[in-house]
Amino acid sequence: ILNVEQSPQSLHVQEGDSTNFTCSFPSSNFYALHWYRWETAKSPEALFVMTLNGDEKKKGRISATLNTKEGYSYLYIKGSQPEDSATYLCASPGGTSYGKLTFGQGTILTVHP
Amino acid sequence: DVKVTQSSRYLVKRTGEKVFLECVQDMDHENMFWYRQDPGLGLRLIYFSYDVKMKEKGDIPEGYSVSREKKERFSLILESASTNQTSMYLCASSFGGFGTEAFFGQGTRLTVV
After folding, report:
1. CA–CA distance, B73 with B25 (Å, rounded to integer)
2. Nearest CA-CA partner of B29 in B55, B58, B52
3. pLDDT lower than 70: segments of chain B
4. Which helix (H) or strand (E) is B87 found in, with range?
5. Which of residues 7-46 of A touch B (CB under 8 A)?
6. pLDDT tens figures, B28-51
7. Residues 1 to 20 of B: which have CB under 8 A from any A CB?
């Protein structure tokens, strides 16, 4: 089983703070790294799918970087807002082409007004 | 708007019952997945299907079976529900391939009493 780890497990920040969390994955046989956001009572939604070493992606105040050689990805949120409160999941497809994903445990972010 | 729809948001079943969780997608995706989510463990893959009538076990298939008679529909079956199957169940679909995102249903919170 592919080992995907996320840290921290949970995070509490104040509105306006910037924050970041980590996803680590095996650096050998890398294919892609996915980030999803899962808000309470909603479906998980894809934020980014990253495939290239050194890739940086941005969506509004959220950005992500990828280092495939050392096996980690960072997700950054600039100026956190209460609506950013969610569980953030990273996942890797490993070596299969069926889209089967192995997920990390998730980071639960709570942004306090 | 793309959609993955799960038949129930909440279900309460008795130990020993046979339980069916239904999932329908309208995106003509080849691949469909069933995950369960438990606190601190992230999403774990139960079964997936890469074509009609084709299925493969995921990481935790024990106590479950699946059915895919039509491309758009993927059912998860708990043959004899047990209390340790109390969980959040998520269905997902994708085109497959390493760089394609997964689309998720809203989840079914199953409680087995």
Report:
1. 7
2. B52
3. 1-2
4. strand B87-94
5. 9, 31-32, 34, 36, 41-46
6. 999 999 999 998 888 999 999 999
7. 4
Chain A neighbors of B90, CB-CB under 8 A: 43-44
Tokens found for residue B72:
């758009």
Element (H, E) at B34: strand B31-38
Low-confidence ranges of chain A (pLDDT < 70): 1, 95-97
pLDDT at A49: 94
* The residue type at A108: I
**Residue A28: per-residue pLDDT:** 85
- Which residues touch A57 (CB under 8 Å, ≥6 apart)? A48, A50, A63, A64
DSSP character for B101? P
Please identify which residue in the block is written with the tokens 């050689």: A69
Chain B residues whose CB is inside 8 A of the A40 CB are: none
3 state DSSP class of A64: strand
Q: What is the pLDDT of residue B96?
A: 75
